[in-house]
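Protocol step 6 of 9: fold each sequence in the batch and record its structure tokens directly after the sequence line. For illustration, a two-sequence batch is reproduced in full.

Sequence one:
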Amino acid sequence: MDERQRAFLDDLLTTPSPSGFETAGQRVWVDYVSEFADEVQTDEYGNAVAVLHGDGPELAFAGHADEIGLMVAGVNEDGFLRVGRIGGSDHTVTKGQHVEVHTDDGVVPGVVGQAAIHLREGDEDVEDVDEQHVDVGAESEAEADELVDVGDPVTVRQTLSDLHGSRVAARGMDNRVGTWTAAEAMRRAAERGVDATVYAVSTVQEEVGLKGATMVGFDLDPDAVVAVDVTHAMDSPDVTGEERFKDLNVDLGGGPVVARGSANHPEVVAAVRDAADDAGIDVQLQAAGISTGTDADAFYTARGGIPSLNLGLPNRYMHTPAEIVDTEDLDAAADLLAAFAERVEDRDEFAVDV
């Protein structure tokens, strides 16, 4: 990953993009892909699609732009904000966090209240998100109403840290690393002179039910799609032995993860694995017998069925403000998708042979 590519990743990670409020993050993505795409389009909800025209099959590489967060649900008489979830926010990690409320007039800083340990009785259960509050410093409901509106999104204040080697920690790796990979895969396919038509896609509202992918899958109708999303790295002390076995030992830095089963079309799986072998790229495998929990689940049933694959990027501590990825996994995933596009550029279809 060179300096320009890393700057793009940093810009994505430091631009708040909660589900339903992805516009600023999508602008970062669109500005980057516009440098090498033949054209870029956005739809009514902000899904972004870049295209590299070719004469071969149409391939889409997609990540989702949105991140989990909170939302202002109301203000009490003392000026404290009540909040609700945007997506699968973890109530055990929100307490005591610095946050930002994103209003039409700019950012309002605050903190999620946490009673001092001296005032708590033992190991009390952490209350759910809708029982927590954000303190913005207001002394009354009227003061708070001057600062925020109900429905304003809230994100944990951004911290991005370079750890040892090629590992990076930040909020919202899920799934700006996927949109980074989709964009970079198309750029690298262009460098290779791939003859397939390649779409890079950045969808919205995955965290609230795969909504953007449902829209794009209907509108785009490619011959095959690879949905790039994070998957659980199972190599840290907080993961139990039973969970580690269940997820087939996915390791951070072990390479992108090819899912098999359910949404994952066997012909696309085989072609990606063959491309990895030819390019000398290490991949990991993951079982997905019922669903992938990613945009692949929306894409593969669109328009009567689009051959799809979920390509995973190993991620520690998912849905916390301290997610960790290895940038070498991201580079390998982008290279793999470009190699896949090159390998199948003369292919007519991906249908299974029945």
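Sequence two, same batch, same settings:
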Amino acid sequence: MNKRIVIMGECMVELFQLVETVYHKAFAGDVFNTAVYLKRCCELPVQVQFFTAVGTDLISDKLVRAVEREQMDTRLIFRTKTARPGLYMINTDAFGERSFVYWRDTSAAKQMMQLALQQQAEQQISGTDMFFFSGISLAILAKPDREALYQMITRLKAAGSQIIFDPNYRAALWENDSEAQQALTRAYQLTDIALPGLEDHKKLFGASNTEQVVAHLTELGVAEIIVKNGENPICGYYQGQTFSVAAHPVKKVIDTTAAGDAFNGGYLAARLGGSLPQHAVKFAARLAGFVVEHTGAIVSKDNFSGFWARHRPSQFQK
């Protein structure tokens, strides 16, 4: 039977700069990026269901078609007549570092839990092998909706679904650091596989190194931990043992957008295919290194096909 993973969160309209006065339109967002790279990188058949909300407008229709083009299941994309997708603009400097401008205050994705509850969507989600969400997925929800999500995840976990979480902390989306700390801690307590970045834990929990992140999360009961750290080695924890894997060297960084999201997608694709965490990290690091050599969050299918012709998760089993 094919594996199934539900990935929950926001997808937005992405505008990234081609030249000074010209921008390219695409669709992106942390969990959507992860979903795309996961689907593209699975060597075995897998059903990826994207869980979000969009409007009933033309741009929402195009967003849904973009999800379909990536061969993902759209039955958990809910429609609302009162909102549209959010939008963000990326500008990059000479070193590939990004700056963002967002228009997301009235994003339709904020209604995804309300709409899911109205349509009794938990019946469709139950039985999934994995459920993935992020700190952004939490941050954009109203507090009652966030509580409903925690309760749903609790039931999924009790029924045997693996819960995967990336804190992906964005200060502007939270009322204050205390609210974020409490929300992310509660999420971690429900998590089986955690995919944090060291920077998030430096800002929110005062961690100074990846080992401290692992210690913090094992105390919260997380069984599998992968701590991303930019161009520095990735720290992992699995079955009571820690390990370290070097990040993949990059010749020229063009755009760091979605580096962590691509890593997440590659890691989960490899794990779904049966790779051990150490091997999955090697593939994920190689994928992230490839993605930052290109502009925008989602590498075109043509460019990606060149990567896929040379690299598969099963090739990193050493």
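Proceed to step 7 once all outputs are recorded. Observation for sequence two: The first strand starts at residue 3 and ends at 8.
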